[in-house]
Specification:
- The protein is of the alpha/beta class and about 290 residues long.
- The protein has one domain (about 5-285): Arginase, Chain A, CATH 3.40.800.10.
- The chain is built from eleven helices and eight strands.
- The radius of gyration is 17 Å and the shape is globular.
- The termini are close together.
- The structure holds arginine.
- The site of arginine has 16 residues, from loops.
């Protein structure tokens, strides 16, 4: 059975220091790089969600957006569709995975591809930026308004989570993840062992979750020379030559519940390279099947 892909825009930069990612989904909707994707009969662009202002601060605005995103993602899953969420800053991940979890009868795993750990709490953050906190929130730690999006309780169990590509973080968030037992594959480990070995090990871990798993991809996991259009670029990332084949290996996996691609910042996307990469990436994970 071929599932319908449901694109959902999360047009928020409220969680970031540079709010430019808010324009990401609208820019992609119009980008020529997305023309072929949008013509696919098995893909439909659903809604794009925008933050509501004057809710009394950033946490309230992010919580409100994530609540609506969780609902849209949950409904898509319950219709038997595969949600593909396009950000937007990475704080929106709280909505995506709370929605996936709400639609699943059993715990779900998450593969987190990112230059950062995004695992601060309000107490540990250095910047105060909410896009530095979503993974901690999904693991049950953080501002109550964010932790309870989509229902009470942690949305992920540490043993079902793995991060790949990490190269920029503060010590407190690393200690937090190590304490919980979340597996972090830094870029140094990728360089030592090669991406195929690391990706395989990370995937095996997240696939242990009985409810299936998802992929949260922050575009800054790529080297900024290949993906310049991101909110927080960090040098020395993964190349497309490395990561695309690994992602293509997920194609057709019935346990893959949803994908999100976050932190696209069109203001910085010199030559439209990042939008084109993003379109290729969706095509690699969800190739168009014959007849679909
Ligand atoms: N989703 C992101 N781009 N996160 C970047 C976070 C950077 C830094 N660790 C912070 O907490 O501010």
């Amino acid at each position: 059975m071929h599932r319908t892909l449901r694109l959902i825009g999360a047009a928020s930069g409220v969680g970031a220091q540079d709010p430019g990612c808010h324009a990401g989904p609208t820019a992609l909707h119009r980008a020529h790089a997305f023309d072929d994707l949008q013509r696919r009969p098995d893909l439909s662009w659903g809604e794009t969600l925008f933050p509501r202002q004057a809710l009394g601060g950033r946490v309230a605005e992010v919580a409100d957006l994530c609540q609506r995103l969780a609902e849209a993602v949950r409904q898509a899953r319950e219709r038997g569709e595969t949600p593909v969420v396009l950000g937007g800053d990475h704080s929106c991940a709280i909505g995506t995975w709370s929605g996936v979890r709400a639609a699943s009868p059993a715990p779900v795993g998450l593969l987190w591809l990112d230059a950062h750990l995004d695992s601060h709490t309000p107490e540990s953050t250095h910047s105060g930026a909410l896009h530095g906190m979503p993974l901690a929130c999904l693991l049950g730690q953080g501002d109550r308004r964010l932790v309870t999006v989509g229902g009470p309780g942690p949305k992920l169990l540490p043993g079902h989570v793995a991060l790949i590509g990490v190269r920029s973080y503060e010590p407190e968030e690393r200690e937090f993840l190590d304490r919980l037992g979340v597996r972090v594959f830094t870029i140094d480990e990728v360089r030592q062992r090669g991406l195929p070995a690391v990706f395989g090990e990370a995937l095996a871990r997240v696939r242990q979750a009985p409810g299936g798993y998802g992929v949260s991809l922050d575009l800054d996991v790529f080297d900024p020379r290949e993906a310049p259009g991101v909110g927080s670029p960090e040098p020395a990332g993964l190349s497309q030559t490395e990561l695309m084949p690994a992602l293509a290996g997920l194609a057709g996996d019935p346990a893959l519940l949803a994908l999100e691609v976050m932190e696209f910042n069109p203001d910085r996307d010199a030559g439209g390279r990042t939008a084109a990469l993003l379109a290729r990436l969706i095509g690699a994970v969800f190739p168009r099947r014959h007849g679909a």
